[in-house]
Request: fold
Amino acid sequence: MSLIGPRPLRVHYLPYYTKEEAVRHTVKPGVTGLAQVSGRNALSWDDKLALDIKYVHTITF
Reply:
């Protein structure tokens, strides 16, 4: 686990991800991520997943 990265979700959600949403699992999960600092519970699941995908595509280390 990393300090920053997509928050880990339960494994039983995996079948519901699209290919693009599943890309969030290509990086280490983190304690906090873009979705948590950008609105947390005020965001929809689609918005949270979009922010996780954005993080994966813009990670710089």
